Amino acid sequence: MFRYCKKLRRPVRSEIILFLCLSVTIVSNTFAQEKEEEETIETERVVIVKTYTPTISDAFKVKSTPVLNDSVTQKKKQLRYSIFSVPVASTFTPAKGRAANIDRPKKIPLYDNYATLGFGNFTSVLAEFYSNFQINRTDNMGLYLHHNSSQGGIEDVALDDKFYNTFLDLNYTSRTKDFTYGIEVGAEHQLYNWYGLPETPVLTQAEIDAIDPQQNYFGAKLGGKLQFDDLYFKRASLNYRYFGDALSTAEHHAVFTPTFEFEVADELITTDFIIDYLGGNFDRPLNLTLQTPNDFSILNLGIQPSLVVLRDNLTLNLGAAVFYSIDSQNNDNDFFIYPKVTASYRLLDEAVIAYGGLEGGLKQNTYRDAVQANPYVSPTLFLTTTHNQFDAYIGLKGKISDVVSYNFRGGYASENDKALFVNNRPEILQLEGYDFGNSFSYRYDDILTLSGYGELNFNINKKFKLGVSAEYFSYNTEDEQEAWNLPDLKVAALLDYQITDQWFAGAQLFYVGERKDINTSVAFSPPTPETTITLDTYFDANVNLGYRFNDKLSVFVKGNNLAGENYERWSNFPVQGIQVLGGITYKFNY
After folding, report:
1. 3-class SS letters over 23-70
2. Are strands 233-245 and 515-518 parallel, antiparallel or unpaired?
3. Burial of 143 per CB tally in 10 Å (0-12, 13-18, 19+)
4. Burial of residue 156 (number of CB atoms within 10 Å: 0-12, 13-18, 19+)
5. Alpha-carbon Rg of the chain, whole angstroms?
6. pTM surpassing 0.85?
7. What is the DSSP letter of 351?
8. Span 113-588: which CATH code?
9. Phi/psi of residue 293, each to 5°?
10. Hey, CA dihedral for 575, 577, 578, 582, is it positive or negative?
11. pLDDT in tens, 509-541
12. Which residue, 126, 286, 293, 360, is the most exposed by fewest CB within 10 angstroms?
């Protein structure tokens, strides 16, 4: 080692040479020791008994300020700033800002009351009155009166064909912090005539004059509803209706429907309970020969749970309906289960929405429902329930643009004991005004219906709207020869046009396809087999035109059946021809 140190070419101080030599010697000994340990020391397993518990050492702030010992220091140079100001003449004159004008739509005044009165040919009268009283901030009362009548005058009709329809409704509603309740009462009176005598058998004028074809219907209703905001018992409604006629028919119909809502696994389940009772009697027997009494008493008990599932673009309603029907008069009790499933899915936002469903239910047929659909029924109906096994449908709806919307649907339905209107054959014993083949009754049959529906709506602008729809039906009956008085095609077009701020117009066009009915133009005695007749298609054009003098006062004129056809909506019952009615409407506030 010392020999190596002496080989240094340039002179080095002795202390430095000695330090280097000692350092080399120590390093050489260290490497030699490590090599010897590697050859003799064996690996051993070390077990740590105490767990590691890290600690944080205390930190101390430096309390002294360091002193810079820099050989080069520069002093900050003090700078002074000054502005050389020169006045400049300006010709700019600021102007006050003005807010831009905004085109605001004209505020449409709203009125709580209106009255309408009109007169037309066939000695027609139309009268309506509506009023809403705001008692206070939470309570209000409403009134609605409607009257429509005509003294008749249809050509080639032997019997009186006048009619009128009048009803009055009153309602009261109160809204509180926790619940809302309402009460409704009403009364109605309708008058119609069985004027549809068949062509044969031929009656003498004296026999015709002896017929009293007039029928009067009377009705009253009382109902109430209750709705809670923060309870499982969500709402309930109770409605009672009485309906009768001038021939001592009496019908009582009461429906109670409470609704409960429960939340299960963040999903809302709604359950409707249904208690539906129908009771009463027809004073006229169902069969004149056997003098069979015609009383009815039916109680339907049902429950309908449903669950709504919302997932992004999917809306799914899963439910079912269970009914137990008790027919006391016929000792017939039945148990029914129906599906209640609907779904819709947004394929392209609002442009294309696919939807479908599988639904069923129990329908209670009533005397009043029959009269509203066909006022020329006889008071000898047999009333029972219609069992809607299922109605399966699938369709597409949406908006092609902001102007055009559409809805297309296809369906297949199965109904047991579906009520069909049929023309009553003339009775041998002509005791009442409806015994001459000039009235209708119910027949029930199991029917399969294949249907297709299409609808297009055009909202050109706020002033012009047009809607067109068409519906096709194909029926398959089990016992009856035909699906009596059910059309195979329906087409409708509705138009609403605001011509100017004062002038407005509208139109309703209807086309109804062929229907089948029983031919009543047969001899009274001896009875002959039933034959079928086909009722022709018909087209009905209704147009209205109006003018507003101001926001309160306006006049109108309506034209109905402008095609002028005396078509038959029901067999042997031609309608009035061209009908024109004009009137005035006045809106006001108290």
Report:
1. HHHHHHHHHHHHHHHHHHCCCCCCCCCCCCCCCCCCCCCCCCCCCCCC
2. unpaired
3. middle
4. exposed
5. 45
6. no
7. T
8. 2.40.170.20
9. -65, 150
10. negative
11. 999 999 999 988 765 555 667 889 999 999 999
12. 293
